[in-house]
Write a structure and sequence with these properties.
It comes from Flavobacterium psychroterrae. This is Outer membrane beta-barrel protein. Keywords: Signal. This protein has 171 residues and is mainly beta. It has one helix and ten strands. Strands 1-3-4-5-6-7-9-10 form an eight-stranded antiparallel β-barrel.
């Protein structure tokens, strides 16, 4: 039992040291996120949904630069189709900042907007996200988290809670 506990402590120490290195000032970050619960929110992640014969999809990515230890400034782009004839193509964008508390708990604040083809009004959201960064390798982390999007134009949309699983490359 003592050996198992010591091995677990060693693994956590190496993982923590690796996380400290990857969130230092001057490092870069590229993320791909999956998002569950986000429809019409200006998605910069990967999503596929089919409901009542209508299929919607989205692809996107985000990138960032660590301007100081544990703080990255980020931007993201996405493109998708909501499967409806009247407003099918959606171009999305996101800008924000992500801070890693103790190198393992990412907290993000961002603005997300979307441009929907032939729509009278386009949605925009202020989002806050928190989760956990699990570094599975020297340059790779898996980051599950919850995001709450607050609508900035009530006539178009409503607040949305979504669950994300992010995959990040750090270099």
């Amino acid at each position: 039992m003592k050996k198992i506990i010591l091995a677990a402590i060693a693994v956590m120490t190496v993982s923590f040291a690796n996380a400290q290195e990857q969130t230092k000032k001057g490092k870069y970050l590229i993320e791909g996120n999956t998002s569950f619960g986000a429809t019409g929110t200006g998605n910069t992640g990967f999503a596929l949904r089919s409901e009542d014969g209508t299929t919607s999809w989205n692809i996107g990515a985000e990138g960032g630069y660590f301007v100081m230890d544990n703080l990255a400034v980020k931007a993201g782009l996405g493109y998708g189709d909501n499967g409806q004839d009247y407003a099918s193509s959606i171009f999305s964008y996101k800008v924000g900042a992500k801070y890693y508390v103790i190198n393992k708990i990412p907290v993000e604040l961002s603005y997300t907007g979307a441009s929907i083809k032939d729509a009278d009004e386009n949605p925009s959201y202020l989002g806050i996200q928190g989760g956990y960064a699990w570094f599975i390798g020297k340059n790779v982390s898996v980051e599950p988290g919850l995001r709450y999007n607050i609508t900035l134009n009530e006539d178009y949309g409503k607040d949305v809670l979504q669950f994300n699983i992010g995959f990040a490359l750090h270099f």
